[in-house]
Design goal:
40% helix, 13 helices, alpha/beta, 8-stranded mixed sheet, 294 residues
Length: 294
């Protein structure tokens, strides 16, 4: 079975998690890789950006002047969470929306915010994993990216039970060390609760990547000191945290346009930045897939 499912995860919001997730996925698809996005965050920001880019809307959305000509999407993550292996027939279009020949998404759903309250324990937590296994979803794509909520919840558990790797975007501040430490505690706790699953299918950390970082010549000394302090922290050294060498650099257009994607832009600087991040991502995946020589 392929190991190609990557969860984007941090216990803190506003760190560029969704932005980095969509940018990496879109870049890979534009470079002839087959990519599936899964929006596990009930806020649905990833879905909103993708829908705006490809002119889709949920079937329950009100019609406006802006979206009146958008195509209707019936696929939703809620259908996946309600999936059970005993269902005899399913329509794949109720789960996965194909955007082009290389990119697809399991869209988030604002109604999913109510799902956790009514979900039925381990069957629901395993629904995404079971769905991916039953329909051999891993084998159909080169990469699968899961955008997770910034909390420890039902959705986080479901995402990590389905994942092979996770990576953690952070914006450097005085809470970063605490946030990464908390993230590792959450993952370790999950590995203990679901020990049989993770013994058979390991969950590895690809690394921490700093986000929203200015260009080298524009970084103020205070941020340089903060980056150094985080990377040299005794707490994180004890956790053996890997840091991406290439940070995700500031792009002024990203917060202004929901349908902006670097791979389609005229920014050579941002494109090269993204290319280096993807190359390092691939290197980390290869490193973790290679058995350690005794």
């Amino acid at each position: 079975m392929k190991r190609n499912v990557i969860a984007m995860l941090n216990m803190k919001g506003g760190v560029g998690k969704t932005t980095l997730c969509k940018e990496i996925a879109y870049y890979l698809s534009a470079n002839d890789k087959k990519v599936l996005l899964v929006d596990v965050d009930p806020q649905g920001n990833l879905t909103q950006s993708i829908f705006e880019k490809f002119n889709f809307k949920h079937h329950y959305e009100s019609e406006t002047e802006r979206n009146k000509d958008y195509k209707i999407c019936t696929a939703t993550i809620s259908n996946v969470f309600e999936y059970t292996s005993i269902v005899e027939s399913v329509k794949m279009e109720d789960f996965i929306l194909n955007l082009n020949k290389n990119l697809a998404i399991i869209p988030g759903d604002l109604n999913a915010v109510f799902f956790e309250r009514s979900s039925g324990g381990s069957e629901s937590e395993n629904a995404l994993k079971n769905f991916m296994e039953d329909f051999e979803i891993r084998e159909k794509y080169d990469y699968i990216f899961l955008d997770c909520p910034p909390t420890f919840s039902f959705y986080t558990t479901a995402a990590l039970l389905s994942s092979d790797f996770y990576m953690s975007p952070i914006h450097p501040d005085s809470y970063s060390i605490l946030g990464i430490d908390l993230l590792f505690q959450v993952v370790d706790r999950l590995k203990k609760v679901y020990r049989d699953r993770f013994k058979a299918f390991p969950l590895d950390h690809l690394g921490v990547i700093f986000s929203n970082i200015p260009r080298d010549g524009s970084i103020q000394q205070g941020m340089k000191d903060m980056l150094k302090d985080i990377q040299e922290s005794e707490v994180l050294s004890s956790l053996n945290v890997n840091f991406f060498k290439e940070p995700f650099r500031i792009n002024a257009y990203i917060p202004k346009k929901i349908d902006y994607f670097i791979a389609d832009s005229n920014s050579d600087f941002s494109y090269e930045n993204l290319r280096k991040i993807v190359r390092e991502l691939d290197q980390n995946i290869i490193r973790l897939k290679t058995p350690v020589q005794q």
